[in-house]
Amino acid sequence: MPLTSKKPPLPSEDKRWRIVNGTMRRHGYARDALIETLHTVQESFGFLDKVALRFVADSLRVPLSQAYGVATFYHFFTMKPPGEHVCLICMGTACYIKGAGALLNEAQAALGIQAGETTADAKASLMTARCIGSCSVAPAVVFDGETMGNVAGKNLREKLAGWRPA
Amino acid sequence: MTFEELEQIAAETRENREKSPRELNVCVAAGCLSLHSDAVKKSLEEEVKRTGATCRVRGTGCMGLCSLGPLVASEPSGQLYKSVAAADAAEIVKNLEGAPVPRLLCSREQPFFQRQNLIVLENSGRIDPEKIEEYIAADGYRALVHALTEVNPNEIVQEVSKSGLRGRGGAGYPTGLKWGTVSKTAGTTKYVICNADEGDPGAFMDRSVLESDPHRVLEGMAIAAYAVGATRGYIYVRAEYPLAVKRFGTAIREARRLGFLGSQICNTKFNFDMEVRIGGGAFVCGEETALIASIEGRRGAPRPRPPYPAQAGLWDMPTLINNVETFANIPSIVRRGGDWYASIGTKKSKGTKVFALTGKVRNVGLIEVPMGTTLRQIIYEIGGGGPEGHKFKAVQTGGPSGGCIPEQFLDLSVDYESLRELGSIMGSGGMIVMDDSACMVNVAHYFMEFCMSESCGKCIPCRSGTAQMFELLTRMTLGTATARDLELLEELCDMVSSTSLCGLGQSAPNPVLSTLRYFRDEYIEHINEKRCRAGVCECGSTVGVTA
Predict the structure, then answer these.
(1) CB contact under 8 A, B278 and A36
(2) B82-102: per-residue pLDDT in tens?
(3) Domain B140-342, classified CATH 3.40.50.11540, yes or no
(4) Model confidence over B161-172: pLDDT tens digits?
(5) DSSP structural state of residue B399
(6) Interface check B124 vs A, CB under 8 A
(7) Does ipTM top 0.90?
(8) Residue B17 has what pLDDT?
(9) Per CATH, which fold does A85-163 belong to?
């Protein structure tokens, strides 16, 4: 039995916390809902921060260390806010064989950042994925959630330039 | 639900379809979607509306030949259109009655389609994956109703054993044996888990099955639950597959609505329900004990086996865990019998296998062939060979746990044993063709980077060993390695594979070992001559980015 069944208050008035709370309620505040809840936090806020981790850990009665461990173990979770636009380059084997490495180099040069980073003006983030399963149209790049297949350097440069007008 | 009710739904669905005999089926699975098949579908719908043509436009699953997408099939003529753009809609609709549009025509007579034997993919591209009635009209859920109302759980286990089906996740453990163990183990609650954490880069079979025919997997899981006495199920899907998550979620809701999930299914005492769990992008979670830890809300670290999940799995209860494709085979086996399934394939590997054929081949896509088909048939007949002007070098199977198979073994039949003998594995079914533009040292380096980053860090051989091997391989690609480094690499391969805790570490050296076995001269060139014959590694300067 838990010592107290009292749930922590929502961290702020932000309505998105109610969505997060909804996920936990749907799972009956069970501890194994940790990953599911963190998915909801990231979907709602774009990233996980300390406030969110503490709130979720307290609500589900798991140690903060476990929540932090989970948040940092899984690649899908990020603790940094993403840029306004996200460019995700697939580095799966099929894409790699068809030149994803060169695309990544181009994107890094175009944005002036490394993979995993966000530009200083917070306009764009550059990410890589292990494999997004779009191997049939390799190399594939996901621009703001929309997958583009058979990407050439030219497509990539145009798309990125459109995000950050000079 | 009874057979009569099933038949009624099927009849109504067929009747509805016959009202408008002409159909345009647009593939809306991931491959074609990323080539904007949704826009094609929309513009076909608008065109049909505008012209008042008697034709239905449906969204269906994957039709296989993804490299020529977006694909549109015109029924009842069966014509297949390739590389369709939204602007082609008017021409396609105009020619519904008459001759097909030659410019877009894609022959179904080519070996890519003719050479296949569809079991898992039989409905793929033929039904709307979001409509349960269409699955029922294609004989769906008959196997479940038959299992629940006509046979006992034990007979199901026996039928699956008789079929000779082996785990399609890659290791090839006999499915019937696993089911038998779970059914015999006592436990207050038992679980069924579907492993849809398709982590191998270059593999998209499970994704496609879930997006194209989710009810088949759901039915397979429900039958499995009945056979082993489980009441609760989970499907663990990668977060990278949002469409698969969505379609499977729809499938669960629809199945509940018609009473295939829930309590007293088909008016029997059998209760079963399931939920989707979304992964977090960790390759190690494809390992069953790590996957279980992840469902429990923890970091995905594997634990030693035994006890196997069949004895103590999810929350220490007996748990049956199988791959998507394994479950997808079950409805057909139950419906048509184990003997029928066992008549397909080789002596020790029965049935068919779905492969994701990618890389340097003309026909890229999803294929299903009987076990025992040769690599040459797959690559040259179905795949159409490599692009002009390049020479075939190797085919990679099994992802980061597999290996590269060179040309001299292309006539080998594909089954669990022969691939293992070659130093590769069946794996989940990714098949990546490489030509002379690929450097084998670079490929080994690529996979080692993968294993190093994906190592969960729990056991030292894997955590440190992969990092050391990566460093040695980096030196080779940079042209700074010595002969001693090669010796060291081989020693490390042996050490890591024999002492790691789980499959990730045990198989991490495979890509290195197999390339060393067949392409040793390329390693020697990198070391002695500081030369990369494919021109991929910039020996002597900086290496191409691989991370």
Answers:
(1) yes
(2) 999 999 999 999 988 878 899
(3) yes
(4) 999 999 999 889
(5) G
(6) no
(7) yes
(8) 87
(9) Glutaredoxin (3.40.30)
